[in-house]
């Protein structure tokens, strides 16, 4: 009896072990979109930075070494001409959103207005005098004798030349007075946000420090690309910018690839390192900037961001999970559980692969749409690959296949959905031929 109990206990243990063993997983070959992406941490920056003066504007790209704030070489006036007076209005403050052409500050123009009126009056008189002398010169050309005509023409020509010089000089006064009036106003060169205000009512316009600092409304995200990824970048690649702090994202594209390497400072040697040990040299990286002309609300410079760059993509191709493909010395293989045309069970089949994406591998030959293949792991541990639903029909050359499985929305919010079908993953215990 004791022996019988032991045998029964052993059989029960074996039965329990067999029942508790997880069943292998399977998946069907289906239409899907295969994507290979690269995720890079980045930071938001202003696309353009402006320093505004009375009479000058300095423009600097973000991340570039800022030159001196001294703009006096650009703000020049004739010492004999009027200059803008004290500041009489400041209409923008730090944090204000402004539009292109909006007036931000104005200086007193009383002297410039008077100078312009005086110059314009003098110009009218000089122009009248020039017209009169030119008429006299024409009359002198028809004098009674050649000698008289020559003497009169010399005198008339001398008067006309002096008149023309006078008109030119007064025209310069008019131009300078108009420039003074224009320089007395600071307007926004583009849509942006005021970052600093360094002028005040009653102060004199200065050229050594900017009156305003303005950043563009357009923002960009800068990320450091490792050298191993540089060759995969190309203009036009789709980029998704995720902002974890705002729980928002935006789409853009690569408009230019990095052209200059940046090496970060070397790390400080560990205090536990051997005496005289040198820190490991940092690897060069390549800054990549992508611009958002209309950034999400709340996005500001300095905010962390994540870039997801679509390096390569194949739409509506036959695909299987990456883990289902076995790489051997003579090629790639999958384990075929059942086929729509072949009589095969757990056969190792050689396949031709295309793009290997983040989670899926493109299959170009070796299996057919609807074939069931094994996936390492178990049905419980292997997640079902989900892709956006597809309204497109298979190519005419595709072999007949069971009805495609219902589609499930793409769970990741970082990439926009694209049309594809769902490779259905089931346990090995299910009927592989059931639709």
TrEMBL record:
Gene Ontology MF annotations: efflux transmembrane transporter activity
Composition bias, Pro residues: 408-420
Keyword Coiled coil applies: yes
Domain of life per record: Bacteria
A cellular-component GO term for this protein: efflux pump complex
Coiled-coil regions listed: 109-136
Biased composition range(s): Low complexity: 379-392
Native source organism of the sequence: Kitasatospora atroaurantiaca
Region feature (Disordered): 379-435
Residues annotated as signal peptide: none
UniProt keyword annotations, A-Z: Coiled coil
Name of the protein in question: RND family efflux transporter MFP subunit
Residues annotated as transmembrane: none
